[in-house]
Write a structure and sequence with these properties.
The complex is a heterodimer of chains A (626) and B (92). Chain A is α+β, with helices and mostly antiparallel strands and 626 residues long. In chain A, 36% of the residues lie in helices and 12% in strands. Chain A contains 23 helices and 16 strands. Chain A has helices at 78-89, 141-148, 187-198, 209-212, 238-244, 265-281, 290-294, 299-305, 327-337, 371-377, 386-399, 403-415, 424-435, 439-444, 448-454, 477-485, 500-503, 517-533, 539-545, 547-561, 567-587, 600-603, 617-623, and strands at 53-58, 63-68, 103-107, 120-126, 133-139, 151-157, 165-170, 173-178, 203-206, 220-222, 231-233, 247-252, 340-343, 354-356, 462-463, 466-467. In chain A, a hairpin with a 4-residue loop joins strand 1 (53-58) and strand 2 (63-68). In chain A, helix 10 (371-377) runs parallel beside helix 12, helix 12 packs parallel to helix 15 (448-454) and helix 18 crosses helix 21. The termini of chain A are far apart. Chain B has one helix at residues 37-43, and strands at 3-7, 17-18, 25-29, 51-56, 59-60, 72-77. Chain B is globular. The two termini of chain B are 24 Å apart. A 6-stranded mixed sheet of chain B has the order 2-3-1-6-4-5, with helices on one face. Chain B has 1 helix and 6 strands, in the order βββαβββ. The longest helix of chain B has 7 residues, at 37-43. Chain B is mainly beta. Chain B has one domain (2-87): Roll (Ubiquitin-like (UB roll)). The chains are: A alpha+beta (626), B mainly beta (92). Chains A and B meet through helix 7, helix 8 and helix 9 of A and strand 4 of B.
Chain lengths: 626, 92
């Protein structure tokens, strides 16, 4: 067995001598790579302009070079930046796993500063799951360390020919190490060994075994604060894009980095103060509030009572067994077993929705069991045993697959006769098929729609090829409009945002009302801004109800960038992001026919309300009339 | 037949018995004595500010809604408020 010291075959030393520093800005080393000093040195700090750089990683040549950020992108971050880069540099008609796709990482605008709950990183590329543009984001110290190192984005392009690599990034250092020893190995073991090699403060990003077999359900994993691979930019198969670039890990150390420049510290401070006050005041986000008490899994009982929690592959919206996997049950079990709750996903989070789930006796920590993950791997598969759900979540983290997509996939496989609904032990065995890279495992690793085709299932809950999250759209019409029309494929996070009166939209909040286009569009726009800012989406609860919170969020961005955005400007930026994403999708072959839910939602009534999805297609088309 | 009241989170302590899973507090009330969800909340010794989401027969509901024997009411405590309100609307 190889240990962590077996990183042989160092590809090329990319180290620039540590003593050579920027003559203007002492924290910045000139960013170069290759064995020779390059003629062009990219340290162009000229007072008032950002020193942050784009790191372009060419896997064909195993070179990583820094570039100045073009003016058009200098005020962007997170989703706005990943989607802008993908739209400009990736041919929309390329094969997502072929040589022309790229993988882009970008911390949010305020990420790496003292702004609360802002340790988010966006990952973008053309999705092998949807065939369209994709942005998935995660909360991890990786995001903050990248930003503090002065890196505004990483663009990974090309494909290494012979093996897979680990890219090690630190101040003045870009080195490629052979990651072949980690092929076929679980990520929990890998992360523990990488932490041993690079130090406990290192931040890690990776693709797992599912990515190695080009699974369209493969996510991009990031470390939690314990160093485990439990934080995911999970959706859309970007782990397979990373793997097919020949890149298995990125390790970041921010020691000695310049930090994030703040153009106007007073405005930044005033803005974050308003946002902190709103987060501390709101019942959902305050200390002792819902998210810190129970985590996102508090929603299991609530959505079950609303008749909208999908059970057994979206065949019912309610089951009396749901409380067995509820937030209350989980929080109490964690306390009894000696796990952790509340907990942060990244340093500086004041919401603290996270946790560390453990086995009996406090053993074998998994990380957080989110509402969506518990639902997908639990009730949606007819599984009402938290220990089985925990082991399924562990397997997803270890293999590098998205929990939502995998829960939908297993449920569809159960529908197709591969296993019985409720058989948690068999579901865990199915995950092992992926680990062993068997033909069945390769089918499952490609997600819900692929598995549905393989086993002749027609109740396949997808939009644009992506599995639905934990809210059935039949009793909750508005979220169905967002699932159908977001450029991302079925995505519950695409339509969280701010109050309709702030957006100036006229949608009604009645869940059964079918007039939802204006509401959904406005929510998608505001969400695109939050995904750009670097703030956690759960800040949406507080800024929705407390207007000064939203003002504070925008002001803190202004403080970092030196801009003068209003709240409306921020929402307009979100609209531009969506327009960019939809333009890409259109060029990739998407039409209005792709802005639809799976057909069965229209004709299969969902108990207990026995409602079908009856929002007219014409209403869906009003969201984006272009 | 009575009104079945399901209590979640820390409100479970208000129930003397529990259902088959032990995870939900169950109380039955005479539909002739409680006319609204607000009445039920009062009988439980709770104030309006102690509760968050209320459901009547799987409909997200306001306190003022009428109840009758055979109905199922679910009550969540204040620290379990989490619905994204623009997708959910209370039935009055």
């Amino acid at each position: 067995m190889r240990n962590s010291r077996d990183f042989g075959n160092r590809a090329e030393s990319k180290c620039f001598p540590e003593h050579i520093q920027s003559p203007v800005f002492p924290g910045i080393s000139p960013c170069v790579s290759g064995n020779l000093f390059r003629k062009k040195r990219f340290y162009s700090y000229t007072g008032g302009e950002s020193t942050a750089k784009i790191l372009r990683v060419d896997m064909n040549k195993l070179k990583a070079t820094c570039e100045d950020v073009p003016d058009k992108w200098k005020n962007l971050g997170g989703r706005a930046l990943t989607s802008s880069i993908v739209a400009e540099e990736v041919p929309a008609d390329c094969h997502p796993l072929g040589p022309n796709n790229k993988l882009v990482f970008a911390p949010g605008i305020v990420t790496g500063t003292s702004a609360p709950s802002s340790g988010r990183i966006s990952v973008g590329g053309k999705s092998p799951l949807t065939g369209g543009i994709k942005e998935a984001n995660a909360g991890s110290s990786f995001a903050q360390k990248l930003a503090k190192l002065g890196i505004k984005a990483i663009i990974v392009q090309g494909q290494a020919k012979d093996k897979c690599y680990l890219l090690n990034i630190a101040k003045g250092k870009r080195e490629f190490l052979d990651a072949s020893p980690w092929m076929g190995r679980g990520l929990y073991e890998a992360y523990a060994q990488l932490m041993e090699k690079f130090g406990k403060d290192a931040a890690i990003c990776s693709t797992g075994i599912a990515g190695e077999i080009s699974g369209a359900a493969a996510g991009v994993a990031f470390n939690d604060i314990e160093g485990m691979p439990s934080r995911y930019a999970g959706r859309g198969g970007l782990g397979a894009v990373m793997a097919t670039r020949g890149l298995k890990f990125i390790v970041v150390d921010d020691e000695g980095g310049p930090g994030v420049e703040i153009a106007d510290k007073e405005i930044f401070k005033a803005g974050t103060k308003k946002l902190v006050a709103a987060l501390h005041e709101h019942a959902i986000t305050k200390p002792g509030g819902t998210l810190s008490s129970y985590g996102t899994d508090a929603l299991i009982n609530v959505i079950n009572e609303a008749g909208a929690l999908p059970h057994r592959n979206f065949s019912s919206g309610y089951d009396e067994l749901a409380p067995l996997v509820s937030g209350e049950k989980k929080a109490e079990t964690i306390k009894k077993r000696g796990g952790e709750r509340p907990h942060v996903c990244s340093p500086g989070c004041i919401i603290q929705c996270s946790e560390v789930w453990v086995k009996e006796g406090g053993k074998d920590p998994v990380g957080v069991l989110e509402y969506e993950s518990v639902w997908a791997l639990g009730p949606n598969c007819g599984i009402y045993n938290l220990d089985d759900v925990g082991e399924l979540n562990r397997a997803c983290n270890d293999l590098g697959v998205d929990t939502i997509e995998m829960g939908d996939t297993i449920a569809v496989a159960m529908e197709g006769g591969v296993a019985k609904f409720g058989d948690g032990k068999r579901a865990i065995e199915l995950m092992d098929e992926i680990r062993r890279k068997t033909p069945l495992g390769r089918i499952l690793a490609n997600g819900t729609e692929f598995t549905g085709k393989a086993f002749g299932v027609t109740r396949v809950p997808t939009v644009k090829g992506q599995g639905l999250p934990a809210y059935d759209p039949r009793p909750i019409k508005g979220i169905g409009v967002t699932y159908a029309t977001t450029p991302m494929g079925a995505d519950h996070t695409a339509g969280y945002a701010i109050a309709p009166e702030i957006l100036g939209v006229g949608g009604k909040a009645d869940p059964l009302d079918t007039k939802k286009a204006d509401l959904s569009r406005g929510l998608q726009q505001a969400t695109a801004f939050i995904d750009t800012s670097g703030y956690c989406l759960f800040t949406a609860f507080a800024i929705m109800d407390i207007p000064s919170g939203m003002e504070g969020m925008v002001e803190s961005c202004n403080g970092v960038l030196g801009t003068n955005w209003s709240v409306q400007d921020a929402v307009n930026l979100g609209a531009k992001v969506l327009a960019t994403e939809r333009k890409f999708n259109k060029a990739a072959g998407f039409t209005k026919a792709h802005d639809r839910l799976a057909e069965f939602f229209k004709h299969e009534p969902l108990p207990p309300k026995n409602v079908v999805y009856d929002v007219p297609d014409a209403e869906l088309d009003k969201v984006y009339p272009d | 037949m009575a009104v079945k009241v399901k209590l979640y989170g820390n409100l479970r302590s208000k129930a003397t018995g529990t259902d088959m899973t032990g995870e939900v507090g169950i109380v039955e009330m005479d539909g002739g004595k409680v006319r609204t969800i607000a009445d039920i909340v009062g009988v439980l010794g709770l104030k309006e500010e102690d509760v968050s989401h209320l459901f009547l027969n799987n409909d997200y509901s306001a306190l003022a809604r009428s109840v009758k024997d055979g109905d199922v009411v679910a009550i969540f405590p204040k620290n379990m408020v989490l619905l994204y309100k623009w997708y959910f609307h209370k039935k009055e």
